[in-house]
Here is the input.
Amino acid sequence: MSLFAVMLYDLQDRKFLPHKKRRETSIQEVRDVQQSLLRCKTKLEASLARYRIKHQLTSVHCILPESVKGKQERASRLLLYAWINTLRSSLDEVQSVLKGAGLSQVGSVGQLEGQTFCLDPHCDNVLVFPAWMKGTLDSTKLLHDYKLILQDKSCCLTPNAAIPLLPEGGDVLMVGRFSGLTVSHTALLMRHKCKDKSKVLACVSHLTDAQKEALLQVIADTGCKNVKLLPEVFQSLTSGDKRLGKVHLILLTPSCSLSAVSNPLEFMLQENRDTDLLQDLSHGSVAQSKMDALIAQQKDDIHHALKFPQVLAVVYATCSSHPEENEELVTRAVKEAQLTFQQEWRLKPPNLLRSKQTSSNPPDQAEGPEIKDSFFRLDPSEQNNGFFLAVLVRESTLQEPPQDVTAQVQTRLKPARTRSKPLSRKTQGVQSKKTTKANFFSPPPERQICVKAPPLFPQATVAKVRTQSCQSCVASDCNQAESLVIRAGQHLGEDVTNSSYTQRPRPPPLSRVVPKVRPRRLRQLELKPAVIVLPPPPLPPPPPLHTQRTNSPPSHLAGSFSKSTLIKHKLKFCV
Here is the structure.
């Protein structure tokens, strides 16, 4: 159908008249289509005439709306862009061949007149020619030998903006709509940067078998070998796929409305774009239902591209002039990624100025892009089609885990600990007792907490503080790191007890905190029961001798007490 559409347009442009000079075509498929059109030329011409009369149009060209007519006029004057295949040739060789064919090189696009050419202001290996130079280029055989590749500038800008972001040894994943020329251009630039260490992975699930074979044929003709096709749908690929282990860059060129393209038919045929949009573009705009479907697909693609943890950059490019497909979509995707993923994505201004370009020799204002904030945009003009490009790069915002913080604290305090030998718990207790009553014994590291207390506490208060301290010690995540800081401060001779009586909030993990110690528990004397034995009371004087009886006197009159009496007095005075 693509060949039929091109030949039908040519037949209608010739008013359905055959060529003046009939020449046999070497391709059988082209001859078959041409013969079919010539057999039906009367019916085709009559059908167009009925349509013109029905809509009261003076000619067939009046069928198109004014916006489409303006695009066609710009398309007839578009410049030709071609990138140099350095696998087959070099810049010096191509320039020599062009100059030998009568062309002269000029300094900028604004000076292109007659048989001239110049270097593109944004890409190193892209040459620019006037619109009428295609026949001359064809005669040089540079196109037939695949030394010079004609392609739209929007397709040349995408690889030049993406490959500088690729680290050495990384792979590139291409997603969306692209041709074999774009894949070859990307593989060529990557090979010059990473040699043979990297390759291009292309998702081609949307292509038919014939289109895949044509794509592989183009890649083989250009001489690229570091390309691998993935038949799976991009949404089904995950980070666990071994084939994607080295993918650090995703080049995303999704299906778009092509509203910024002046020659949509030619662009669709060359870049494997969706031909279903051709009918909508012929009316001047794309239906809202198709536009919503395109935006939904673009959103899914860019969100899925941001999920791969090993990907460092994503290049998003469209040929649309609608903000909802460009700036709004990318900005919203970046904000959602910042809320969803642990690593932050940000927009980076693409570096698309030719490396040889200096500030004293800037590109012409007429051909320069419109760069707002972090986006790159080319508006449709007589020099080029419209184009939009955004570069998203990943920046890690993960906080270090507690064990890493502890290791850093230990590393920083290691010289301080090596200067003095740590004291044992018994020695610290003896020294603290000798210094002052306000200095408290430092508990072991697992019991050290951030609590400040007055020098002396009652016993009940000390027990209460001790209980609260144990609870805060268990709840604190940074207790181990703070303990290391406290111990280091003691070894360095810092006063870790002279501070206020209020608790302070836990500082950030890496900031050094003022050491605080728990008050030393006061030593208590254990009381034991004591027995006090009092001497017996004085004895009464002995009675007179005449009162004594012959019988044995009682024990208390005999100058001594009985055993029971002594025991009774002893229990009475015991303490």
